[in-house]
Design a protein that fits this description.
Helices cover 19% and strands 27% of the residues. The chain contains 7 helices and 17 strands. A hairpin with a 5-residue loop joins strand 5 and strand 6.
């Protein structure tokens, strides 16, 4: 499968800049793999596709305010720092990306906030834009974290071309977000409201929560035509014994087992037995799923409409079937569905 197969014409005005007013009132395209039928619904109509003992699997990762703006010592040049992950709590070490990277060298100090509330020193280069920072902060860890996050802003993806607004801190987060560690939201989960979850629960559906801390690799462009040569960034995942049991019971009963989002699908496929059962797991995954691929666990998937050439589109095409999904995307453009993080959703059954 070639990268060029995932090109399609996406008018820029169809990239959603804001979420719908109510989480569960975005549009929902329902794609049936068996019949090829495409239906147009509202997201809360999802309730009609689930019954007693069906299972929905959610990613409960929580996004932290990962984007900071600081100034370089001496020159005062503005530097964007994107926090990726904490490396050492005691030493205040963080793995970050910096922009513009060419100006940031080992030994440089960066200053953040009014009155330079926080200072960091560059202690290592990791990639072309990657650096390791040591934050110079004497107080307790809780105070440091509060100061750091107070200076950060919601890390909206760059294709949402506007300033971050106060509502983003709530809306760029699922209502079930619990385990902090993501720098991007698991977007399919953004459509679920408390009311919709309650109605699904009343119908007898079961929920399993797994964790994949979404990294920037989701937005990293694929720069090889031969997809077998693309390497995904590693991301941390956790599947508890309880979640595995709920998922496996749904499978054993031949029920609908629905992965809510590509991050959930990747997590499930990263820890599966030869019998197609999910195993409890804590570790890392760099699994890259593209057509053709035989899925082992989920038989249903919720996903947003992803941008051309993205690994997220590739996984959706692997699950729904390349021809059917590309036809669905063409239909979505024609019907003016909203694309990207804050856009509309697709249910593949």
């Amino acid at each position: 499968m070639k990268l060029s197969k995932f090109k399609y014409k996406l008018p820029e005005e169809l990239i959603a800049l804001h979420p719908t007013h109510n989480r569960d009132e975005s549009r929902l395209m329902v794609v049936n793999r068996a019949t090829g039928k495409i239906e147009h619904k509202i997201f809360k109509d999802l309730i009609n596709y689930f019954d007693n003992d069906d299972v929905l699997i959610f990613n409960d990762t929580k996004v932290f305010p990962a984007r900071l703006y600081g100034n370089k010592e001496k020159t005062g040049a503005e530097i964007e720092v994107f926090l990726l992950r904490e490396l050492n709590q005691d030493q205040r070490l963080w793995d970050v990306l910096v922009d513009p990277a060419r100006k940031i060298r080992i030994g440089n100090k960066l200053y953040f906030g009014e009155d330079d509330a926080l200072v960091a020193e560059v202690i290592d280069n990791t990639t072309s834009r990657g650096r390791t920072l040591r934050f110079l902060y004497d107080g307790p860890y809780e105070d440091f974290k509060k100061t750091l996050y107070g200076l950060g802003e919601t890390p909206l993806p760059k294709f949402i071309k506007r300033e971050v607004e106060p509502e983003d801190s709530e809306r760029y987060q699922t209502i079930f977000a619990q385990n902090e560690g993501a720098v991007a939201a698991p977007t399919a989960g953004l459509h679920f409201s408390r009311e919709l979850l309650k109605r699904l629960e009343i119908k007898g559906a079961h929920f399993a929560y797994i964790t994949l801390h979404v990294g920037l690799g989701n937005f990293r462009s694929v720069d090889v035509e031969d997809l077998t040569k693309h390497k995904m960034d590693s991301e941390q995942i956790l599947i508890s014994e309880n979640a595995a049991n709920i998922i496996n019971q749904g499978k054993d009963k031949k029920k609908r087992v629905c992965a809510v989002g590509t991050t959930v699908m990747r997590t499930l496929e990263s820890s599966v037995s030869t019998y197609g059962h999910v195993k409890p797991f804590e570790g890392w995954t760099n699994k890259f799923i593209f057509p053709a691929y035989d899925f082992n666990v989920a038989n249903c998937m919720v996903s947003n409409f992803h941008l051309p050439y993205s690994t997220l589109l590739m996984m959706s095409a692997a699950f729904g079937g390349y021809d059917l999904i590309m036809k669905a995307y063409k239909t979505a453009v024609k019907e003016k569905y909203r694309f990207g993080t804050y856009g509309d959703a697709m249910l593949i059954i």
